[in-house]
Amino acid sequence: MVQEIPNPVVPVSVTVTTKDDGTVDIQCLPNPVPVDALHTLISFNMDTKGWRFRTTNAVQLDTPDPDIPFPSWTIAPDQCMLFDLCQTNVTLKYTVNVVNVLNDAEYSVDPEIKNGDGGPSGK
């Protein structure tokens, strides 16, 4: 019998829009990010040309939590990762930091991660 293994990677799409009045709108989808499996990578993907993630601290928890034991790492200008142990049922607030490649101006948004209790079975 084939056992279903939960997807250990959860993708998050990050888009940036500059409005007519100059304000910057950053969207992270899905929000909240659903994480239900133990030891999950959350992959943040920049889907707007002309923008990139910070080279360090692209994604930061608002309050430290043992489920996120390491800082995020930026794989490429348009991709960063966060490791989630997902051992507790908790909602985590975090900040995504993006940079305009034309003028190096930084902007941020504060979405959420919703951890389900991964439990010993990974579900």
Q: Can you walk through the features of this model?
A:
Helices cover 0% and strands 50% of the residues. It is built from no helices and 11 strands. It is elongated.
At CATH level 3, the topology is Immunoglobulin-like
Instruction: Summarize the biggest pleated sheet.
Output: 6 strands, mixed
Which segments are poorly predicted (pLDDT under 50) over 5 or more consecutive residues? none
Number of domains: 1
Sketch the topology as an H/E string, one letter per element.
EEEEEEEEEEE
Beta-strand content bin: over 45%
CATH architecture: Sandwich
Rg calculated over all Cα atoms: 15 Å
Count of alpha and pi helical runs? 0
Q: Which features would summarize this protein structure in a list?
A:
11 strands; elongated; mainly beta; 6-stranded mixed beta sheet; 0% helix; 50% strand; 5-stranded mixed beta sheet; 123 residues; Immunoglobulin-like
What can be said about this structure in brief?
This protein is an all-beta fold and 123 residues long. Helices cover 0% and strands 50% of the residues.
SSE order and pairing:
Layout: E1 9-18, E2 24-29, E3 33-35, E4 40-46, E5 51-53, E6 59-61, E7 73-76, E8 79-84, E9 90-100, E10 106-109, E11 112-115
Parallel strand pairs: 1-4, 3-11
Antiparallel strand pairs: 1-2, 4-8, 5-9, 6-9, 7-8, 9-10, 9-11
